């Protein structure tokens, strides 16, 4: 039986309303019984419903990393509030009495076990090991179309630069939006989103200095130049398949699948992750909501990102991610091609509560020299296609406060970094440091986000999470 925590139950809930309703069932003593199987891998109980008879809910952990929830209620939510309520009840210390598994539930478990056995047997066969691939001819045709699309994008940008950003008007923006929509016909969803981002920036900076627009233009120029070279080399080599070693694939629009990355050897077994910060935002350029988490891999100390994209049209059908406080024990962790904070995904996993050893590992992972940190960050930012806001874990020997109430962190060698918010990175966090006692900001680990501000020509450092031996303070929750 895995360790059940409230944070783990939250992560399984389809939405915040389900969490509230499930907790309400426990608090109002709506459950008339709590039971578990003799092996401890099944929780079940009866909960009062709106009718005369109650609902039988269960949480089956025969496969701990793939729990199965069942309930006799008519709810279409999965898991429903009754099944979730069992988890919250266990976390709150309710007594679960060992009892025989109800016949109907036992029958469903048996059928599920047989289906799993068949699936494993099928997966163990040579045919089952080979993931579905697109034909070489289809991939070659796709690459050729992408090259045509890049040519179209380059002509569009050259016309824009020749005319000058100061001449952009409503007619120009309308034409650019139409061209951005057309890029989707060339399998260029990445450049399509980046062109939309340029349009949004030009609208925001109309009449201004166009600093961020120029930065975006530089990015698009690099994407066209490097993308064209990458695609041509694939055609010349006769290997049009996506290259798992190149970030350009995703930038051009390829959507990596879990099995695909695993097949290319991009998987790590038995990794443990601890989330240090989380945020969600509306990406109007991608026309998607984005759930972004920053995690530390405990055995390596590397900072990774998890990203979930929820398209506007399908957002209500996709569960929104949230902050997660437990350690994720991933059976397999796949890594995307990336820089300082590569994106990761995991499928089958179990939670456990973090302990002192985990936080000691986090503290040991913190970089102790700001000179070395700045070198790593600047090397990444030199690449216009790299993530513009890398995140690093820093050791802070001392935190100073100026007369203007600005915070400055210092490393053990006396090197200093001023802290501030990043205007295009969502909610501010620097001011929240004033809510933390000054003596709690000495000899700490600090998760910080970096951003070169093109309009000011300086590097901004934004605090995200304060990590001490006895507490963690998330400024970006």
UniProtKB/TrEMBL annotation:
InterPro entries, alphabetized: Znf_SWIM
Occurrences of domain SWIM-type (ranges): 55-91
Pfam families noted in UniProt: SWIM
Bias type Basic and acidic residues, positions: 107-120
Region (Disordered): 107-137
Keywords recorded for this protein, A-Z: Metal-binding, Zinc, Zinc-finger
Protein name per its UniProtKB record: SWIM-type domain-containing protein
């Amino acid at each position: 039986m895995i360790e059940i925590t409230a944070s783990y139950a939250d992560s399984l809930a389809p939405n915040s309303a389900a969490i509230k309703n499930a907790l309400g069932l426990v608090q109002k003593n709506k459950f008339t019984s709590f039971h578990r199987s003799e092996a401890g891998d099944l929780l079940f109980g009866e909960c009062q419903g709106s009718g005369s008879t109650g609902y039988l809910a269960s949480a089956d952990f025969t496969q701990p990393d793939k729990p199965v929830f069942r309930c006799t209620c008519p709810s279409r939510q999965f898991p429903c509030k009754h099944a979730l309520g069992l988890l919250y009840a266990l976390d709150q210390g309710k007594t679960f009495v060992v009892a025989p598994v109800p016949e109907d539930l036992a029958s469903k478990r048996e059928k599920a076990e047989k289906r799993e056995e068949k699936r494993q047997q099928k997966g163990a066969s040579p045919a089952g090991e080979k993931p579905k691939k697109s034909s070489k001819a289809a991939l070659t045709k796709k690459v050729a179309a992408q090259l045509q699309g890049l040519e179209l994008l380059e002509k569009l940008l050259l016309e824009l630069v020749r005319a000058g950003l100061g001449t952009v008007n409503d007619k120009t923006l309308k034409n650019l939006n139409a061209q951005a929509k057309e890029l989707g016909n060339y399998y260029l969803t990445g450049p399509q989103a980046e062109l939309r981002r340029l349009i949004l920036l030009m609208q925001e900076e109309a009449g201004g200095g166009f600093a961020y627009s120029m930065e975006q233009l530089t990015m698009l120029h690099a994407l066209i130049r490097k993308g064209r070279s990458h695609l041509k080399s694939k055609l010349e080599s006769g290997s049009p398949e996506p290259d798992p070693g190149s970030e350009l694939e995703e930038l051009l629009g390829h959507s990596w699948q879990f099995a695909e990355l695993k097949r290319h050897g991009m998987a790590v077994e038995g990794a443990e992750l601890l989330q240090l910060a989380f945020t969600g935002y509306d990406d109007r350029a991608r026309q998607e909501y984005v759930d972004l988490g920053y995690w530390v891999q405990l055995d390596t100390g590397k900072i990774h990102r998890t990203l979930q994209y929820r398209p506007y049209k399908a957002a209500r059908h996709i569960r929104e991610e949230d902050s997660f406080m437990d350690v994720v024990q991933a059976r397999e962790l796949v890594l995307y091609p990336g820089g300082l904070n590569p994106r990761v995904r995991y499928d089958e996993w179990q939670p456990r509560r973090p302990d002192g050893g985990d936080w000691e590992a986090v503290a040991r992972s913190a970089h102790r020299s700001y000179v070395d940190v700045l070198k790593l960050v600047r090397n990444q930012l030199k690449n216009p296609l790299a993530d513009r806001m890398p995140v690093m874990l820093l050791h802070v020997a001392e935190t100073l406060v100026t007369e203007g109430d600005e915070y400055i962190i210092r490393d053990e060698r006396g090197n200093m970094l001023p802290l501030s918010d990043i205007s295009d990175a969502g909610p501010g966090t620097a001011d929240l440091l004033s809510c933390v006692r000054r003596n709690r900001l000495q000899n700490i680990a600090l998760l910080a986000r970096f951003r070169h501000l093109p309009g000011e020509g300086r590097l901004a450092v934004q605090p995200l999470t304060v990590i001490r031996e006895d507490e963690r303070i998330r400024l970006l929750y």
